[in-house]
Amino acid sequence: MKIKNICCIGAGYVGGPTMAVIAQKCPHINVTVVDINADRIAAWNDEDVSKLPVYEPGLDAVVAEARGRNLFFSTDVDKAIDEAEMIFMSVNTPTKTYGKGKGMAADLKYIELCARQIARVAKDDKIVVEKSTLPVRTASAIKNILDNTGNGNGIKFQILSNPEFLAEGTAIADLMNPDRVLIGGDTTPEGQEAIQALVDVYANWVPEEQILTTNVWSSELSKLTANAFLAQRVSSINAMSELCEKTGADVNEVAKAIGMDSRIGPKFLKASVGFGGSCFQKDILNLVYIAKTYGLDEVADYWEQVIIMNDHQKRRFADNIVSTLYNTVSGKKIAFLGWAFKKDTNDTRESAAIYVADDLLNEQAKVSVYDPKVVAERMYADLDYLNTRTAEENREGLEVCKDSYQACEGAHAIAVLTEWDEFKTYDWKKIYDQMQKPAFVFDGRGILDKEQLKEIGFVYYKIGEGE
Ligand code: NAI
Predict the structure, then answer these.
(1) What distance in angstroms lies between residue 464's CA and the mean position of ligand 1's atoms?
(2) What is this protein's function (predicted)?
(3) 181 assigned ligand-binding residue
(4) Which of 2, 38, 271, 365 is most buried, by CB atoms within 10 Å?
(5) Can you give the pLDDT at residue 458?
(6) How many CB atoms lie within 10 A of CB 230?
């Protein structure tokens, strides 16, 4: 079966970039990305590609090339479903904030709504692709909804699992050149045919040996497993960073030494203020929840520790700022460089900066933030979401600056929360001259030049570096 029309439900950080790359690489396929969020769709359609709702290096060029040719963004979900032979579900699957599994399980209401809408609209057979990250065995629930809530005129649905492994900040490079593409489907001949249809889409630019096909459950569970392993590496090196600080070891030297062991490998061994992003925490919590549902308490506890360690790392970064500043930051200006959860993205979901700011605001600090890509409304929304204090109090305590030097002016301390490259090239002497003395820098990402900063006169603290 040759696919001519693809629909993707959900125009977010995954749906947008993923479909833009499919459209660019497959000019013979029409790709329509739909969303119920009209503002988001309008931004995807903005003539000025610098205004796209997702910031990713290289995304603007891909969109500029394919949009209007075979890439379309629309709010007309029904029409796009009706026209497509293959429908990707790329909607959000956040942690549940209510009821059973609150704070742990994935909230599947958006996925279910999608499935019901597909069932209602479809007039012919469809391949439905799970692009969202979902708990293992969700495909059977989706199949059940599709088969039983439709208009009942013998329409056949095939469900595939095709989890997305892109990393924000490098999404376009990851999509153009993926380590692997994973496709899970039914072992029946119809299932295999559906798998092949999706393999054929990716084969337009991905070497076939990197396209892995499995059964649906392996594919669903592989995504949760991959994120759990990645996050675990960060928590492992962060756990060692605290021990390094106590013992005079340097976590970067330790990371280099262990990373040269080919069984361990050098990547993802950077100690930091803690991981953020919409996925790691939510997916591990989901994994813990699934393990618990099967009565696997040891498995659940094992993975939960990754989150506990990450929360600890964020908290101890804030605690260290307070204790170093003579046990009080009340009324003191603390400048934040960075709010995004990592560089080269405007995504702030679960960013460590939010939690560090929250802790410091509790201590009555005056926080001033500069981030090259995150807008003020986003930062305030992130803080308001925590419900720690009123919206007015958040706006009183946190100031958002459009200029980094202004953010640092008069500050007692600077905290580096995101590893944006531009921070490395600042005129640090100029910044120093405009700060209170002693001037402290807490480098939560380990990106600044320690010797240079010390020479200027800064008191410099880096995660994982003992005295
Ligand atoms: P997102 O929140 O940026 O985008 C989801 C979009 O779906 C929103 O714009 C929302 O309005 C839309 N939506 C929800 N229900 C809808 C409906 N019924 N009809 C039409 N549109 C609807 O989320 P993001 O980050 O793109 O994530 C999507 C999925 O991909 C999640 O399951 C996530 O775990 C997974 N994922 C995310 C990665 C990331 O780096 N952000 C990486 C790999 C997977």
Answers:
(1) 35
(2) Catalyzes the conversion of UDP-glucose into UDP-glucuronate, one of the precursors of teichuronic acid.
(3) no
(4) 271
(5) 98
(6) 19
Give the Å distance between the CA of 132 and the centre of ligand 1.
7
CATH architecture of the domain covering 5-206: 3-Layer(aba) Sandwich (3.40)
Supply the DSSP symbol for 465.
B
Largest CA distance in the chain: 76
pLDDT at 61: 98
Domain boundaries, the chain: 5-206, 280-462
Structure confidence at residue 150 (pLDDT) = 72
Q: What is the pLDDT of residue 152?
A: 67
Contact 383, 358 (CB under 8 A): yes
Q: Is 130 in the pocket of ligand 1 (CB under 6 A)?
A: no
Q: What are phi and psi of 228, to 5 degrees?
A: -65, -45
- Do the bridges between strand 157-161 and strand 211-215 make them parallel or antiparallel, or are there none, so unpaired? unpaired
Paired tokens of 376: 């003020």
| Residues of the chain by 3-state class (helix, strand, coil), percent to 5 | 45, 15, 40
CB atoms within 10 A of CB 154: 7
**CATH for 280-462, options being 3.30.230.80, 3.30.1390.10, 3.40.50.720, 1.20.1440.20:** 3.40.50.720
For residue range 147-169, what is the model confidence (pLDDT) as tens digits?
A: 988 766 789 999 999 999 999 99
Q: Do the first three CATH levels of 5-206 and 280-462 match, i.e. the same topology? A: yes
Q: Is 40 in the pocket of ligand 1 (CB under 6 A)?
A: yes
* Sites in the chain below the pLDDT cut of 50: none
pTM: 0.95
What token pair was written down for 386? 């925590």
